[in-house]
Known about the structure:
The protein has helices spanning 14-24, 31-37, 44-53, 66-73, 77-100, 134-145, 149-157, 162-168, 179-203, 220-235, 268-273, 275-280, 327-341, 343-354, 360-377; strands at residues 2-8, 27-30, 107-111, 126-131, 171-174, 213-214, 241-245, 255-256, 259-265, 306-309, 317-323. By secondary structure, it is of the alpha/beta class. Strand 10 and strand 11 form a beta hairpin. The radius of gyration is 24 Å and the shape is elongated.
Amino acid sequence: MLRIGLTGGIGAGKSTVSATFSECGGIVVDGDVISREVVEPGTEGLTKLVDAFGSHILLPDGALDRPALASIAFSDEDKRQTLNGIVHPLVATRRSELIAAAGEDAVIVEDIPLLVESQMAPMFPLVIIVNADPEVRVKRLIEYRGFSEADARARIAMQATEEQRRLVADVWLDNSGSSGQLVEKARELWYQRILPFSHNLATRTPVPSPTRVVPADPTWPEQARRILARLNTTCGHRAVRIDHIGSTAVPGMDAKDVIDIQVTVASLEVADELAEDLLRSGYPRVESITSDVPKAGTDITLWHKRFHASGDPGRPTNVHIRVDGWPNQRFALLFVDWLTANPDVQADYRAVKRSAASKEPWFLDAYRRAWVWAQSTGWDG
């Protein structure tokens, strides 16, 4: 099962993307629909809202008067928090019920208006943001949904900013054009990335790592932060620490376009316990890789590890799970700091990466040189 988080600011076009994914075969769990369902007449949710805001939020037939509630709840932050505190837990429970009822091979599209604001993004293997310029959104809200300009701007101002959304977006869908153009973008995303991702998780197949060295991408650290947040949520207390490692962690370093992450654990038994959770987060285990290449003078058993790689064709990622204090775990951290602090070594390594010769002799020497540097500088990881 692949779970996708879908969100966007009010008026951005999220509903169009959600409907397109549904037509393509996705099971859409719509936060707006559930939010209405859990406050229908006779529900626990409606009773709690009346207790909190008064009976004047009801229509004559006993149903919720949404504009009346909005005018109260969005008038200040405390009242908005009260509303969210009532509705969000009920929505979460109902969402879990719908997901549990889906098949194991399903693609679940969780349409969540406040995904960014509620800090839920790291729960999903893939987060899709639909965006449009605020002025375009104001115009749409006035034209198609009957908002006054003041109300439209107030609602937009109370939601996450574009910067906050970009921080969690694995996919950024721009909806500055027509609805038809957005539908085509959504369909291409579904068939070129989402379905292959789902297939890879179902078959436990990681995507191949790139083989070509490319110029440094300034967005690599930002991409790594999203992966780190996802893995922190997945691993929780079972991880001693989680770090961005490898060449993409070195500022300005040319590299293969794959993000390497190290999850440090207390033992390989803990690493094995994480396997299924990592699969659900988008990272199938690669059973054939169980060790790094041991370096001279060290115990070869202390170079064992577990290795996972991303099933997402849009973001190749390697997840190395290593034991705290073992030489492979320590060297992965040292290598990044050593390269970052020594531009001449970076240039040397860049030349090695682009050559056709075996890189292992260089790494054997680099292991020794890096530890000499660590001892001379007092490096402690």
